[in-house]
Amino acid sequence: MKRVLVIQTAFLGDVVLTTPLVRALKQGLPEVEIAVLTLPSTSEVFKNNPQVAEIITYDKRATQKGVINLFRLVKELKRRKFDAALIPHRSLRSAFLAWEADIPLRVGFTSSSGYYFLNREVPYWPDSHEVERVLELLSGLGLEVVKSPPELFPGEEDQRWVAEFLDDNMDDWVAIAPGSVWPTKRWFPERFAQLANMVASDFRCGVVFVGGEEDRFLCKTIAEDVKGKSLVAAGEASVLQSAALLSKCRLLISNDSAPVHLASAVGTKVVDIYGPTVPQFGFYPYGEGHRIVEVEHLYCRPCSKHGPKRCPEGHFRCMREITVERVFEVVAALLVKTTEKEVQRQ
Question: What is the pTM of this model?
Answer without folding.
Answer: 0.95
